Structure prediction request, 1256 residues.
Amino acid sequence: MTSSDQNNSVNEEPNTGTKTFCNSVLIEDTFAEAFDGWMASILITASKRDLAEIAALSAVGFGTSVIGCGAEAGISDYVIPQKSPDGRSGVTILLVHPDKKQLKEQVIERVAECILTAPTTAVFNGLPDAPEKIPIKIHYFGDGFEYQTTVKDRKVWAIPVMGGEFLIEEEIGIVNGVAGGNFFIMGVTQSTALAAAQAAVEAVLSLDETICSFPGGVVSSGSKVGSLKYKFMKATTNHLFCPTLRDRISGSRVPDGVRAIYEIVIDGTSYDVVRQAMHDGIHAACSVNGIVKISAGNYDGKLGPHKFYLRDIV
Amino acid sequence: MTSSDQNNSVNEEPNTGTKTFCNSVLIEDTFAEAFDGWMASILITASKRDLAEIAALSAVGFGTSVIGCGAEAGISDYVIPQKSPDGRSGVTILLVHPDKKQLKEQVIERVAECILTAPTTAVFNGLPDAPEKIPIKIHYFGDGFEYQTTVKDRKVWAIPVMGGEFLIEEEIGIVNGVAGGNFFIMGVTQSTALAAAQAAVEAVLSLDETICSFPGGVVSSGSKVGSLKYKFMKATTNHLFCPTLRDRISGSRVPDGVRAIYEIVIDGTSYDVVRQAMHDGIHAACSVNGIVKISAGNYDGKLGPHKFYLRDIV
Amino acid sequence: MTSSDQNNSVNEEPNTGTKTFCNSVLIEDTFAEAFDGWMASILITASKRDLAEIAALSAVGFGTSVIGCGAEAGISDYVIPQKSPDGRSGVTILLVHPDKKQLKEQVIERVAECILTAPTTAVFNGLPDAPEKIPIKIHYFGDGFEYQTTVKDRKVWAIPVMGGEFLIEEEIGIVNGVAGGNFFIMGVTQSTALAAAQAAVEAVLSLDETICSFPGGVVSSGSKVGSLKYKFMKATTNHLFCPTLRDRISGSRVPDGVRAIYEIVIDGTSYDVVRQAMHDGIHAACSVNGIVKISAGNYDGKLGPHKFYLRDIV
Amino acid sequence: MTSSDQNNSVNEEPNTGTKTFCNSVLIEDTFAEAFDGWMASILITASKRDLAEIAALSAVGFGTSVIGCGAEAGISDYVIPQKSPDGRSGVTILLVHPDKKQLKEQVIERVAECILTAPTTAVFNGLPDAPEKIPIKIHYFGDGFEYQTTVKDRKVWAIPVMGGEFLIEEEIGIVNGVAGGNFFIMGVTQSTALAAAQAAVEAVLSLDETICSFPGGVVSSGSKVGSLKYKFMKATTNHLFCPTLRDRISGSRVPDGVRAIYEIVIDGTSYDVVRQAMHDGIHAACSVNGIVKISAGNYDGKLGPHKFYLRDIV
Prediction:
C-alpha cells in the first residue's frame, strides 16, 4: 500500500490521516454513490423448490443493469413451505427500474414469459405490506375462462393452462429503494479476489431484501461514464482500476501487488438494508487471505442521491 | 382413449385408421409446425464450469419466446477443458431470432451485459465452421487499451477489465435453423406429465445443437393465436388443451383421464437435428408410466414452412 | 379405496369407523413406530457454502440405515454467515446411531476422512447447548504442531495442514433423539408418488433438527424383517406394499389404482420435532394431485418405544 | 523459487540441472507413487439425471481413502439417455479397494443401502467388456418375487419394491487399476491454490474412467506415514508441506510465498488413464495465475509399484 493510493482518492472529505482497516485490509476513505430505484417483489412458488428457482432464474435473466437490460433483477429470498401462502417452497425475486412505468412493463413481460410458462408455478405479491401496488393483468391470458379465488388471505386469479391452473396475485407491491450500492475488492490474484467476492455475495444475499443483479453477484468489468477515445461509447472500461494497465497509464488506482478487482453491486428495498449488506459483504470479503484493499465507486457525488461512506459502514 | 380424439385432430392427411404407438403411448396423427430462425452460437469459457454456467444462465434469461422477449435462448452444450480453445471448461449457448439484424443486437447486448461482466469468462465463436458470421464489436469497451491476439487458432480481442483481461472472438457464426419444433405430453397427473417432460428435455439437450428456451425446457401454458373474448390480446391460453376446461367446453382435445399437458419446444440449427430431438424426446417421455398420448402444435400448416409428422418421427 | 384396506390395517386401536382425510387424501388409521437414537450435530463452515456442502455430502454419504451403514446421517440445516461462529457459510449435519460408543467412532472417522480433508472447512459443535458432549481428538493429526485458540466463544484446535489451518471444536454435543419416524405415500403413478415425496422432504428439511438419511430423503424399497423364502436374509422387500405384486398375493395392502409407494423416514433430535416433521411432510405430500393414501410403518408396537398415530398428527 | 527447494527433493534420479516448467510454473523433479487397486464400475440410471446423481453421491460418500473408509469411491462419468442400456440418464461410479473380497462386500453394501433404496434407479455393469466380474446377489431382497429379464442385451433381475420394480445387472465388471496417482498444487493464496485445484479436478473428471475420491476432488490435509510425536498415530499431517510451519521447522518443502498447497489424488482403471489425468490436471492447474510450483507425493519408491515422473508427464 503506497501513499500514492490516497492521492488518487476521490473522497472529498478532509483526510484526517487515520486509516481504517477491516481484518487488516485497508478500507479506502471513499464512498459508494447510489440511486433511487423502484422495486417490485414477486414470490414464485412451485411444487418443488428447484422448479421455483428455475422459473426465477429465467425471469431475472438478462437483467444485470438498466443501462443495457430492461430491468435489474435477482433472487432476494427463499421461502420454506411452512411460510408461503400456498404451503409450497418459494423463491422471491426483485425487479428494479428507476421508472415506475417501465418497471410495470418489465414485471408483466417477465411474469408472462418466464413464470406463467413454467411448470407448477404460482405468483404472489412479495411485499404484502407495501403501501403502493402495481396491477398486472395477466389473467386476460385465460380468455374468459379465468376466475377469482383466494389462497389463504391472498386474492388470486386462477387461469386455466395446459399444465393445470396458474394462480396469480395481480397486485404486486413496490417500494422506492436504493440501487447501486457497491464496493470494490482488490486481491493479489484473480482467484483470491473472486473467492472474496463470492463470500461477500453469500453474506449480502443472506439478507432478505437485497439482490446482486450481476452474474453470480460479481462484476468483472466495471465501467466509467464515456470514453477517452471512442466518442460514440456511453461507457467504457474503468481503466484506472484495470490491473493490467497499472504500469502503462498515469493515475492508476490499482495498488501494488493487486492482480484483480471485483465489484459487488447491491440493490435493496431501503437505504438501511443496503448499508447492512455493504457491511456484511465487506466483512466477509476481508476474511479471505490475500485481499489488499476495499474501495467503492462514485461519481464525485454528482449523480446519485445516496452516499455510503466505507469508514462509517465497516 | 376415445374415438372423439381423432375427430378433433387437425391433421389434414387422410386418416388411414392405423394408429401409431410409442411404448404403448398413442401418438396422435398430427404434425408440429416450425419456423425459420437465425441462430448464433456463443461458447463461454471460464476458470470453472460453474462460472461459465452462471454467465450462460444470465445471458439466456428472459429469452423464452420472441413474442415477448428479445430473443429465444438456451444452453446447447457443455465443453470439456480438453476440447475448448483455451483449455478451460465451457458452456455453449444459442440465441435465436427470425430477423438477422435483431439477432445481432441481442447478441451484442447479452454478451455485453451478461458475459463481459461475469468473472473469468471468455467468449468464442460456437460455430467456427458456419459460412456466415456476424461481427460484434465489444472491444470498443476497452477504450483504446484493447489489443488483438490469438488463442490457439482463434483471433481474439483482449480487453482490460477490473478482473483482468476479457478475451473475445468477435466473429460469431450464425446459421438459419429451425425454431418451434414441438410436441405435447399428456399425463394422468401433473407430476407424471412433468416427469415425462423433464425426461424428454434431458434427451433433447443431450444433442449438441438444440435448445429448449422455456424455463427448465418445459412449457406449462401453451397458447393459441388471438382470443375468443378479449380482442386486444394477441395470444391466449390454448383452451382446447386445458384439462380443467375439458368438461366445460365443446371440442376439447384433452383425452379422458388426462390432468396435465406439457409442451416441449425445440430450436435447433437444422431440420435434421430438430427432428432427431423430437424423436429422442418423445421416446424418453413415453418411457414414463402414466403418459396417455403425444400430440403436437401447428397452425394447420399456414404459418411455418417446416412440418414434423409425429408418425414418421417415432 | 376399498373396505379391505381397513381390514389389513395393523392398527391395534378399535376402529371407530370415522375416517381421517388430509386435503382429500385418506389417512390410514395406523401409527409409525420409532426408536431411540443418539445424535451428534456437527456444524461445517467453509469459505463458500458449496464447499461446506461438498464436505457435508461426503461425510453423510453411505449413511442411510444403521442396518447396513456405520451411522444414519444427513444435512439438517444451512447457516448463514452472520450466524455462524466464524462468519462463514455453514452446513449442519446429524449423525445417528443407537449406540453412543459407535456413534463416537463414526463421528471421528467421518470428520477425519471427509471434513478434515476438504478444502477451507472448519468444524464446530452443532449443539452447543446439549448437556452431553463427546470428545473427538482429531488434533493429534497435528503431530504436535497443533495449538489451542478461540473463535468467538468457541474453544478450538488449530491444526496445520497443507491447505492452511484446520480449526475444530472437539467437544461435540449429542442428544438422545428419535430415529425412524416415517410415513408412506401412495400415488397413482411413480412420478406422482415421487413428486409428493419430494415435496414432503422439502417440508421436513425446512425444520432445523431433522434429517432424512436416505438418498434424496426418499425410500423406494421399504423392507420387512426377515423373509418368507430365504432364511439367511435379515430383511427383504415389504411385499405387502409392492404395487406390482398386488394382484398376485393375498393380503396386499396396496390400494386399487396405486402404482408406487414411497416412504419418508425421519430422524430428529426430539419426539416433538419428528412429530412436527411428520405433520408438515404429510400435508406437503397431500397437496400433490394423484395421492391416494398415507400410511406408516410399524412392528405392531413391539420394537420401538415411540408411536406416532397419523390421525392425531394430521 | 530458491535453489534450496531442489535440495529437499525426494527424487532419487540424478539432478541434471534442467528445470521443467508448465505455463511458467516450476514442475518439481519428482514422481507420484501409486498402488494397485481393484475397481468396480456401476452404472446407475434413473428417470432423471439428478435422481441418478443423488443415488450416486450417497453410494460414493464416506469413501475418500481406504485408510479410514470401506472403499475409495467417486463419480467417473455421466451417460446420456441415448447411450444408456435403458434409455435413461445415468451416472457411473467407481468403487476401489486393494482387496477384491472387501471390494465385493462394499459394492454389495453400497448398492443395497444407497442405490436400491433410491427412487427410480436401476443398476448396470459399468464395465461390460471387463474379463473379470463379481456377482452381487441383491435379488434375494425380492424374497422370491424377483424374476429375470433383459434390458437390451443386459441380463437383469427385476425386484418388486414399494416404488415399483428395481432392475439390476448383478455381474459387475472389475479391473485391476491404479490408485493414488497424485500431484500437489502450491499457490500464493489459499483461494488461488483452490481455484487451480478445482480446475484440475474438472480436467481429470472429464476423462471417463477416473475418479477423485476426496470431497470435491481436492485434499486439504495431506498426511505422512506415522508421527514424530504421537506414537499411536498411523498417519499425521505432512508437516514438511504445511505453509504455516514453513518458518518454524527445518526442512520445510514449502516454497517462498506459498500460503496453501492442495493435493489431487486420482484413481483410474489403468496406468495410462491416470497418467493422462495427471497431465490434463497439471496443465489445467498451471493455467491459473498465482501457482508457484507443482510437486507430487511418494514414499521414496518403497511402497507403490507405479511411478509417475512429473517431468515426463508434462
In short: The interface with chain C takes residues 187-192, 194-196, 259, 288-290 of chain B (CB under 8 Å). The longest helix of chain B spans residues 190-206. Residues 86 and 227 of chain B are 51 Å apart (CA to CA). Residues 1-14 of chain B have pLDDT under 50 and may be disordered.
